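Researcher: Next sequence.
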Amino acid sequence: MKSFTDQIGSIIELEHTPKRIVSLVPSQTELLFDLGLEASIVGITKFCVHPYHFKATKTLVGGTKKVHYEKIRLLQPDIIIANKEENTQEIVEELRKIAPVWTSDIQTLDDNSAMITELGKIFNCRTEADNLNHKIQRALSDFMQFVAKREVQKAAYFIWKNPYMVAGRDTFINEMLTLNNFHNIYLNKPERYPEIEIKKLRLEGDPDLVFLPTEPYPFKEEDAFEIGRFTHHAKTVFVDGEMFSWYGSRVLKALKYFKQLHLRIGEK
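Model: Next structure:
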């Protein structure tokens, strides 16, 4: 019997290397695939869109906030992979009645590296996990040299409308903003994803950049116009939400994407 501690401090015990995995987190499903575990993944959520063919080859067990427990039970998983932000505590507790649940909690790139390392141990793919971490670290070092030449710009990263919500402190999105020399104007808010009044955009930081991502809310041109009216001269930029909010192996693609984003934005 081997014991593993997940990122919320829970201990799981496994008699053998898990061969049947249910993943309830889109970015972690992608990571498991990139670690060479496709054959072991039996269940995913409807939001697990990468790799694309999984929708046809894996069993869908609901969403991230509402899962189908009976479908999961019938899959007879050896382990369930969850996330503190994506899956509620109630869901995790209920799933523990079915199989061991390993839960991630990703706010920083260090958290991401630690997750990859630990999954490498759990699924006996340490070499693949180490190689991935090394690739990310090399790409990160290269990107930090690139972004060091860019001036800091104030930014607001929207995630929802009706009500308008933004990414705040202690979020992976904020980690990605900081990495890019984008200063998040909402770091002073106590909430991780605070509701805001766009009429107060100037008073609350007057951003140079307003980011409107593709997910979780699909912002449109009319949203950019509405928000832009309440800034001085902010540049509104539509961005790929996966690149800012997905962790795991997606970070490698994100670092390439960010270089292109900076070129698209240009200097102030």
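Model: The two ends are 57 Å apart (CA to CA). The chain has two domains: 2-139, 150-265.
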